[in-house]
Specification:
Keywords: Membrane, Transmembrane, Transmembrane helix
Transmembrane segments: 17-36, 395-416
Radius of gyration: 47 Å
Number of domains: 2
Shape: rod-shaped
Order of helices and strands: HHHHHHHHHHHHHHHHHH
Helix content: over 70%
InterPro entries: DUF445
Organism: Sabulicella glaciei
Protein name: DUF445 domain-containing protein
Distance between the termini: 50 Å
């Protein structure tokens, strides 16, 4: 038993002893009143004390009947708390759910707490939100692992071609190309393509020469192929290499033609629905190809591994990005009163939506908790916490009975004379 219960038990014992003392005092005064020679004072004392005894006994019975059977007698409707514990738990649960946990109370609490302000201040404090950023970053690998589920892969495989091949896909491509063109980065893309083409030609020059010879032989016959195949192959490869050399950074008609073609394609994608639809269809078919899907899967695996490794680093980019995003959100809430009001309203709407179910669960929870309590223990705990006040009921009943008995005796005496009792 803890110290608080011990203090409550001691206080209850003191008040119970005093209430019993008053009852015994009334009994002694009643006996004294009858023992004294007959007189108005003796009769008044006896009547008052008798009423005090009756009032004290009645209140003792009422208080005792709440927690146990008076004198151990099987009197109906006694030991109310032990016998009605389950029903009391259900009633307490319904009361708390329906009269305490209400929509108006929820609105009042949210208005007083200002949930949006609390969230904003927390997010704006980088030192406070840092653990949250680290926790969110640490959750990224688990989130990425959930995307490894076969159904998620199949959904992405079906969804990505549809999104890329939809009406907005061509517009996205057009905006990306215009951004490249505005920054002059389209030439870097062309340089990359040319370097790759040169590398391929250098690595496969012999196989390309043989392929051209074979094509000449198939078109002109064996004799022409023997006489001119090598010559034609060399001339073709030399011409290609010469044009590639001309396309080095600087003035190049092919570079200018590429830029003009790029501008023309951007205009067509932005203004010609048929062209945009054709590009979307081509993108959809390309992304749906098994080889592209396999390549995208490899890209995703590499990206996932990189994100997982970075998220595990407290000083990594993922933590910094999340921390910055949380800080920006906190500043936004701090500066925008309308945003705070909307967030508080959203929290209130969410809680009110969940309120009916929460009320039912709360009532069931309270009833279940009370039902699970040991009957003797719960009776003692309730008595310890309200028993002292109930002893005042006994004291007041004894004193009020004494006073009421005296007043009533005097009133009857004034009306009819001496009262027989």
């Amino acid at each position: 038993m803890n110290a608080q219960d011990e203090a409550l038990r001691a206080a209850l014992a003191r008040h119970r002893a005093f209430a019993t003392f008053l009852l015994l005092l009334m009994g002694a005064l009643m006996v004294l009143g009858y023992a004294l020679p007959p007189s108005l004072g003796a009769d008044l004392l006896a009547a008052s004390a008798k009423a005090g005894v009756i009032g004290g006994l009645a209140d003792w019975f009422a208080v005792t009947a709440l927690f146990r059977r008076p004198l151990g007698l099987p009197i109906p409707h006694t030991a109310i708390i032990p016998r009605q514990k389950e029903r009391l738990g259900q009633g307490l649960g319904r009361f708390v759910a329906n009269h305490v946990f209400t929509e108006s109370e929820v609105a009042r609490v949210i208005a007083r707490l200002d949930v949006a302000g609390i969230v904003g201040n927390f997010l704006a404090d980088r030192q406070a939100s840092r653990p949250a950023a680290e926790a969110l970053a640490a959750a990224l690998p688990r989130l990425l692992q959930t995307l490894e589920d076969g159904r998620a892969r199949r959904m992405l495989t079906r969804l990505l071609p549809r999104v890329a091949g939809g009406p907005g896909g061509a517009q996205v491509v057009a905006r990306a190309l215009r951004a490249l063109l505005a920054g002059g980065r389209h030439q870097a893309v062309l340089d990359l393509a040319l370097d790759r083409l040169k590398l391929i030609l250098a690595e496969r020059q012999d196989s390309l020469r043989d392929a051209i010879k074979t094509r000449v032989r198939e078109s002109g016959g064996a004799l022409v192929g023997w006489a001119a195949g090598a010559y034609v192959a060399n001339r073709v490869l030399d011409a290609v290499n010469t044009e590639l050399v001309k396309m080095e950074p600087g003035d190049s008609s092919l570079r200018q033609a590429f830029e003009a073609w790029l501008e023309s394609e951007i205009e067509r994608l932005e203004n010609e629905p048929q062209r945009a639809a054709a590009l979307g269809n081509a993108m959809r078919q390309a992304l749906a190809h098994p080889a592209v899907a396999e390549w995208l899967n490899d890209v995703w695996n590499r990206l996932r591994d990189a994100l997982a490794a970075d998220a595990a680093n407290p000083n990594g980019r993922s933590v910094a990005v999340i921390e910055g995003a949380l800080a920006n959100a906190g500043r936004f809430l701090a500066e925008d009163e309308n945003a705070r009001a909307k967030l508080n309203a959203a929290v209130e709407r969410t809680l009110n939506t969940l309120l009916p179910s929460a009320q039912t669960r709360l009532a069931e929870f309270i009833a279940g908790v009370v039902k699970s309590w040991d009957t003797a223990e719960v009776t003692e705990k309730i008595e310890l916490r309200v028993g002292r006040d109930l002893q005042y009921v006994r004291m007041n009943g004894t004193i009020v009975g004494f006073l009421a008995g005296g007043v009533l005796y005097l009133l009857i005496y004034a009306l009819v004379g001496r009262v027989s009792h």
